[in-house]
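hiii, so i know i said id send this last week but things got crazy w the move. better late than never?? heres the sequnce for the chain we talked about at the cafe, plus the structure i predicted for it. fair warning i was half asleep when i ran it
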Amino acid sequence: MGKIVTLGEIMLRLSPTGNYRFVQSESFQIFPGGGEANVAVSLANYGHAACFVSKLPSHEIGQIAVNALRRYGVKTEYISRGGDRVGLYYAETGASMRPSKVIYDRAHSAIAEADISDFDFDKIMEDADWFHWSGITPAISDKAAEIVRVACEAAKRHGVTVSVDLNFRKKLWTSEKAISVMRPLMQYVDVCIGNEEDANMCLGYKPDADVEGGKTDAEGYYEIFKGMMKEFGFKYVVSTLRESYSASHNGWKALIYDGKTFYESKHYDINPIIDRVGGGDSFSAGLIHGLLSYKDQAKALEFAVAASALKHTIPGDFNLVSTSEVESLAKGNANGRVQR
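okay and structure toks below
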């Protein structure tokens, strides 16, 4: 298995129990999580040497996040300690026609105010096979964006494959700012992952698809995949295609392009959704594992989509499934019968 490095922010998620609303809750559950941290946990579960890079305060609240990663086998030696706070976010789980809601309280977190000097990226990337980051990290601060750039440069010096999940967050930055930061960073990227909103808001590529109307035909993505591949030189362009029938019922599939062939995955009908937070991260992790393990874009994509479909059934940010469970679903075992 490979050494995989991820870089980003791990936060503490505070959520009401079940489908309670914020305003009626007297207590909150704590779930550590964050884009690249979620990816690292999945990859550790698949047997990889998953390393998470971030900065966290040295106090006990920071230690909660570190301990959560260690619990699932993620290597934490590259986490710099310092700063004043761990980012928080509040997540209310929707149901039926009521959407889920997220409220951020992450300004001035330790990683948002970290310096390049907090990390030795040449040491971190030594012997690494893969480096993954998401568009959330450069969105949290200009300093974090510079750290991403330096990390990408080090990855390229060491011959490491680089992937990005574009992951546009409108509560963190505007499309104009995202495009100005993200497009220059694409020169370092080998595998570009995103959905229709991400490609449009981060890179200026808009697919021919009516997502709100539930029309996500893969053909509508073909031309923008070709354009992105030509402009940025990606080895793979990948998009998830979510059909949101309600907050608790989604359709789920994905599309991959290697510059020669498009492949569309099988479709999953996910109903009811237990928790969709981390669904995209579980997809990214599944794709990384698939491309490292199978060397076949079709099989890699099917693993990624199955992994993400399973994540929708698990509370919390982390996708706590094994390789064998994902492969079983990818092969068609979706009856949910008790395993004795």
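btw The chain has one domain: 3-331. thought thatd interest u
miss u guys!!
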